[in-house]
Structure formats: structure tokens, C-alpha cells
Amino acid sequence: MVDAEVDRFFEVLADPTRRQVVQLLGSGPLRAGQLAAATGTSSPAMSRHLKILLAAELVTDERVPDDARLRIFRLRQEPVVAVQAWLDQIQAHWQEQLGAFKRHVEQRETP
Could you give the percent of the chain with pLDDT greater than 70? Predict the structure, then answer.
């Protein structure tokens, strides 16, 4: 069964701009303006994307002490780890299935 956090992760990342934002933030924290410029998105559109990513808890933001208007966005590790764990389970299942198939074929080939 798929965890709600994994469901939300894929739902939010169905949008290509949000996938690009997550990819960019995977390299390190960035400001909204930097994300907008890197994705070729307007500031209002980026604001909407970041609001969705924040609500889904895929990213966090922090205010810069010297400038309350400036926010730095960071990728949260926990949702990514949850998705990786889910993918690892899927991969383990397929490895098991492929191993069983290989054993079956090898048994049939042996006289």
C-alpha cells in the first residue's frame, strides 16, 4: 500500500515546473527569484508553485534576518527518503520475481 506522503509527492510533482524546482533545490537552497529565473517562470507563477510545494511539505522556507521579504527555499529530505524507500520495495519485489524466473528457466534447461 502506498503511503499518503508518497501519494502527495507524486501528485505535486505531476507538474513539470515543480519537478524542476525540486531538482534545482536538490543542489542547494535558492531564493524564489532564482528559481523563477532558472525555470523561465514569472514571479507570481513561481510563488504559486512554491505555495503548493510548501503545503505538501516538500520544501521549507526561511526568512533572512536582515530582510524579512527575502525567503530561502530548501528541499526537505524526508519526502524524498519516503519515496526512495517505496521505490526500493518495488525494486526488491521485481528482483525477487526475476530471480524466481531465472531459477525456473535454469531448472528447465538442466537435463
Answer: 96
